[in-house]
TrEMBL record:
It comes from the Bacteria. This is Heme oxygenase (Staphylobilin-producing). Pfam families: ABM. Coiled coil: none annotated. The gene is isdG. It comes from Methylobacterium isbiliense. InterPro entries: ABM_dom (IPR007138), Dimeric_a/b-barrel (IPR011008), Heme-degrading_MO (IPR050404). Residues 2-96 form the ABM domain. PROSITE patterns: ABM.
Length: 109
């Protein structure tokens, strides 16, 4: 499994618009081989921003990399938000490969 995350420091007065951009977009993720799931996560509030993370789970790093080179990726990212800046700086990407995965049954043992 491969986990891809982008962290966004969203201006406090732009959280509703930021969330609407994500909720209203056509991601095309479901068209991709190896795509498992997506989450948009809202994190802690700070003095000047609210932390968000987009989080996708892929069967493999290769599947994620294929997504980043795909036409579906270009389509999903082609509609930029309005002219109002929504976050402090470019999102910070983090990618992780699973070392261990436990499901409910394994965790109970």
């Amino acid at each position: 499994m491969f986990f891809a995350m982008n962290r966004f420091k969203v201006y406090k007065d732009a959280t509703a618009e930021f969330e609407q951009v994500w909720l209203g977009r056509d991601s095309h993720l479901g068209e991709m081989q190896g795509f498992v799931e997506f989450h948009l996560l809202r994190g802690p509030e700070h003095d000047d921003h609210v932390l968000y993370a987009s989080h996708t789970v892929w069967a493999s790093r290769a599947d994620f990399e294929a997504w980043t080179r795909s036409e579906q990726f270009r389509k999903a990212h082609s509609k930029a938000p309005g002219t109002k800046p929504l976050y402090l700086s470019h999102p910070q990407f983090e990618g992780f490969e699973a070392v261990q995965t436990l499901g409910r049954a394994e965790a109970a043992e």
